[in-house]
Amino acid sequence: MYKIALVSDLKILLSRQQIAQRVAEIGAEITRDFRGQSIIFVGVLKGAAIFLSDLARNVPLDATFDFIGVSSYGNRPTPKEDPAGHAAWDSLGEVRVTKDMDQSLSDRNVILVEDILDTGLTLNYISKLVMAHQPRSLSIAALLDKPSRRKQPIEARYIGFSIPDAYVVGYGLDYAERYRNLPDICVIDNPVANL
Ligand code: IMP
Ligand code: MG
């Protein structure tokens, strides 16, 4: 249990050791799958930055990085507007690119790196953008998956952990931009009370 200023309860769901072990396993899988080839990791800002940096260091292949920034159109309802909780992090389905990729993805092996696969709307949108570049291949690596929340089907080739429908923070994941720096992945017990 963490005790940080203004935070009541953060319960550890996945420890840094569990995360490190699983990230190493996914790295080994990617290394096997792309042996002898080059890859480009494309991280979805900002949540995937920490996962990407750990994952990439477990893949001893010729590799480059790029990042894409996205946000949902309009503001998501705040927890205060939606005390029941859910809509506070529901994707709105319309995604806006806030930072485009820098490199050409044409004929590249693209690994799209995301922190968490929730409704699937964000990754569906980004996948379409990437496919328009005509990559050689596109694979998705998501550290976390909440399958019970899916609204659009999406194929992720590499998944770290399937988790229940709870709001999680840490290891890149935020709540109102905070907690990304926690080394473990934690469940916020009562998000509304924490703001
Ligand atoms: P999707 O479009 O619903 O799949 O949205 C995925 C995005 O929602 C992720 O990239 C996160 O930014 C955010 N998200 C979904 N669930 C959580 C969570 O439990 N904690 C933090 N962010 C989340
Ligand atoms: Mg995100």
Biggest sheet overview: 6 strands, mixed
- Percent range for helical residues? 10-25%
What class do helices, strands and sheet pairing give? alpha/beta
Described by the principal axes of the CA atoms, the overall outline is: globular
What hetero molecules are bound to the protein chains?
A: inosinic acid, magnesium ion
What are the segments in which pLDDT stays under 50 over at least 5 consecutive residues? none
**Can you give the mean pLDDT?**
88
Q: Helix and strand succession?
A: EHEHEEEHEEEEH
* N-end to C-end Cα span: 18 Å
Figure out the total of helices: 4
Q: Which strand order do you get reading across the main beta sheet?
A: 4-3-2-5-6-7
- Radius of gyration using CA atoms only: 17 Å
Assess the beta-strand content as a share of residues.
Answer: 25-35%
The number of strands is: 9
